[in-house]
């Protein structure tokens, strides 16, 4: 019998207009705050200035670090950590998508010590100092990083994209305001939706000991994405759909998704990470390109789960075909070649996969070098 332990210490504040709670919640956690955000976008939308104003009106000293790139790099995180350490920051507020939230976690951890964030990625060491409190304000429905203690960081010198995880990085507060996603353009909206879908579908399909209640949670999340992502594609300002996707995003990558038992792991994510690490490909686009070939490979061992997925989520007995049709309807039936991946790099990508993502060894089908290369080739 498997044992499930549920612990979600993050205070989740969800709903339209909840961004107005940022100042109040920040004042409860710190005095000197750093806002971590992406390059240009948040300032262009006016959200960065608004966040600064709310924090200052709540009595906090505020500095900005808005240099975060997609697939945040260890070198950028180290820059932010040095500033945080120097400025005695006790609260870090992430404003943006998964990259900003992951970088904020890396900055928080590294700022509490004197080593590069990559040291903490590659070891189980913890810094000697106190890790600043974290508040997450997602502006993209995708990663779910606002309610978990993990972060994905890339070393651009080795092109390894790896997971950083510590209990000290569990956010104290997550403010999920669906209205913040209304201005998001189509491409990141669709890529984010595919990411949500994969967060739920990967453990669902790979599970070796599925449980009925756990299946129910994940099936519900999948049905929400399948229904509402096409609606948002047709109307980027559809509030009902944006709200539904925001809930699915937050829940799909939280400890809530494990309730009811069951197991499974996100091995597709592990195969995608080298693509983002080597080519800086948008994570959701990489997942979309690999998803059909990953499912085809898994069908050798998980045909029953893929069939069940088709029946319960799509109303079809052919789950793989249903997913491909859904991706096509969104304009997200992508291929590695169109994303700029070079065939001659496939061996290097396959080498990086188990280095960057050791958990892929738990995949139901073997994922040795030749197996991973085959999946990449199928995705061309």
TrEMBL record:
Keywords: Oxidoreductase. It comes from the Bacteria. Residues 9-178 form the Alcohol dehydrogenase iron-type/glycerol dehydrogenase GldA domain. GO terms for cellular component: cytosol. The keyword Oxidoreductase applies. Transmembrane segments: none annotated. InterPro entries: ADH_Fe/GldA (IPR001670), ADH_Fe_C (IPR056798), BDH-like (IPR044731). PANTHER family: ALCOHOL DEHYDROGENASE YQHD. This is Alcohol dehydrogenase, class IV. It comes from Dehalogenimonas formicexedens.
């Amino acid at each position: 019998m498997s044992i499930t332990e549920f612990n979600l210490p993050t205070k989740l504040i969800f709903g339209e207009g909840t961004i107005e709670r940022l100042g109040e919640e920040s004042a409860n956690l710190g005095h000197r705050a750093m806002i971590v955000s992406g390059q240009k976008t948040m300032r262009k939308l006016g959200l960065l200035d608004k966040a600064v104003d709310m924090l200052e009106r709540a009595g906090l000293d505020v500095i900005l670090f808005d240099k975060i790139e997609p697939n945040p790099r260890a070198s950028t995180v180290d820059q932010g950590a040095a500033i945080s350490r120097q400025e005695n920051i006790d609260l870090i507020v992430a404003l943006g998508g998964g990259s900003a939230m992951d970088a904020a976690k890396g900055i928080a951890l590294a700022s509490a010590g004197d080593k590069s964030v990559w040291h903490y990625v590659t070891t189980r060491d913890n810094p000697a100092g106190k890790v600043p409190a974290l508040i997450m304000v997602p502006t993209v429905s995708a990663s779910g990083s606002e309610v978990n203690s993990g972060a994905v960081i890339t070393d651009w010198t080795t092109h390894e994209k790896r997971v950083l995880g510590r209990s000290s990085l569990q956010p104290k507060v997550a403010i999920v305001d669906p209205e913040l996603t209304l201005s998001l353009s189509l491409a990141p909206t669709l890529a984010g939706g595919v990411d949500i879908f994969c967060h739920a579908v990967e453990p669902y399909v790979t599970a070796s000991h599925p449980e009925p209640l756990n299946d129910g949670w994940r099936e519900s999340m999948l049905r929400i994405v399948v229904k509402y992502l096409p609606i948002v594609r047709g109307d980027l300002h559809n509030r009902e759909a944006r709200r539904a996707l925001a809930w699915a995003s937050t829940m799909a990558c939280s400890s809530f998704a494990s309730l009811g038992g069951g197991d499974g792991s996100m091995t597709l994510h592990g195969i995608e990470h080298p693509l983002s690490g080597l080519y800086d490909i948008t994570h959701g686009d990489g997942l979309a390109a690999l998803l059909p070939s990953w499912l085809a490979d898994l069908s050798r061992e998980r045909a029953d789960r893929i069939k069940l997925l088709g029946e319960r989520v799509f109303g079809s007995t052919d789950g793989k075909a249903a997913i491909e049709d859904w991706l096509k309807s969104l304009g997200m039936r992508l291929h590695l070649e169109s994303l700029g991946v070079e065939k001659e790099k496939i061996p290097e990508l396959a080498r990086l996969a188990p280095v960057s993502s050791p958990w892929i060894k738990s995949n139901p089908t073997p994922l040795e070098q030749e197996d991973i290369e085959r999946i990449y080739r199928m995705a061309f």
